[in-house]
Amino acid sequence: MKWKNRTESKNVQDNRGKSMAGKTAIGGGLLGIIAMLLVVFGGETGQQIAPVLEQLNQGNTTEQVETRTLSSEEVEMGKMVSVMFKDTEDVWHAIFDQMGQIYQEPKLHLFDDQVQTKCGHAQASVGPFYCPADQTIYMDLRFFEELHQRFGAEKGNFAIAYVLAHEVGHHVQNLMGTNAKVWEQQQLLSKKEANKLSVAQELQADYYAGVWAKHIQKYLEPKDIDIALSAAQAVGDDAIQKRVTGQVNPDSFTHGTSKQRKEWFMKGYQTGNINQGNTFDFIK
Ligand SMILES: [Zn+2]
C-alpha cells in the first residue's frame, strides 16, 4: 500500500516502548496533582516530582515507564499504521455521510505486551482487538511478525491494513447497533448457536474491511489483495485450531473458516457496498 508522505490520523496513541508498572493507568486526578506540583515547585521539577510520584503510586495508580527506544523500523511502522487509520476515517466518513449519518472516529492505541482498557486488562497474546466501551482499537504491532512466522501469512503491509480495517469494521458495527443486537440475542442462545452469531459478526467485519479496500483502491499495490487474503487465511478458525491443537471443531468456531473469511473480504472488495454484507442471513 502506498502510504509514504500521506496524512496521518490524529486519533493514534502510541505507547510502544513504555510499559505499565501496575495495572491501573494514570487517571486525570493524578495528572492534575502533577500539574499542581509543577506549579508549586517551579523550576526544579525533575528532582522534586519523582519521589512524590512514588508516594502517590502506593495507591491505585501507576506510572508509565520508558523501557526501550523504538527502532527506526518501528517508527516507520507507526507512521504507516497512522496513515492507514486516517484512510479508514476518510472512507467511513464518506459512507456514513451517504447514509445521512455521522461517523464517530474511533481511537487507535499501540502498545507493547499489555494494556489497560475499559474492557479490562489485556495481554498482547490476545491479538489486536476493539473495545466498544472506549471505542478504541488496541494493537501490539509485533503480532504481525507472529502472524507471518507462526501462522504463515505472507509478509506485507497490507496484512496490517486488513487487520486494522477488520477492527474498524467492529467499530462500524458498534455505531450501527449490530454489536448490541448480537450480544442481546446471544444471551438467549446455546453456546453453539451463540458462536454462529459471532461468526456472522466477524465475517461482516471482514466484509467491511473489503469494502474499505475497494474505496482506497488508488493506493493499492499489485500484491496487496493477495496479502490480505493470505492474512485472512491465516486467522481462519480452522487454520488456527489445526495449528494449535491439531484438530478442528466447527461448533467452537467464532470467527469463521479461512475460506469464509477470504470470501467475505473479497465480496466486500468487489461490491464496495456496505448494504450487501448481511452475513447473518448467510450463517442461518
Ligand atoms: Zn473480529
Report the principal-axis shape. globular
Going across the major beta sheet, what is the strand order?
1-4-8-7
Quaternary state of this entry equals single chain
What number is the mean pLDDT? 85
Strand content: 5-15%
Given helix and strand content, the structural type is: alpha/beta
> Termini distance?
36 Å
Number of strands: 8
Write up this protein:
The chain is α/β, with parallel strands linked by helices and 284 residues long. Helices cover 54% and strands 10% of the residues. The chain is built from 11 helices and 8 strands. The chain has helices at 28-41, 45-57, 72-98, 143-149, 157-176, 178-186, 191-215, 224-234, 237-245, 258-271, 279-283; strands spanning 12-14, 18-20, 64-66, 107-110, 114-117, 120-123, 129-131, 136-139. Strands 1-4-8-7 form a 4-stranded mixed β-sheet, with helices on one face. Strand 5 (114-117) and strand 6 form a beta hairpin. Helix 6 runs antiparallel to helix 7. The chain is globular, with a radius of gyration of 21 Å. Mean pLDDT is 85; it is low at 23-61. Zinc ion binds at residues 166, 170, 202, 205.
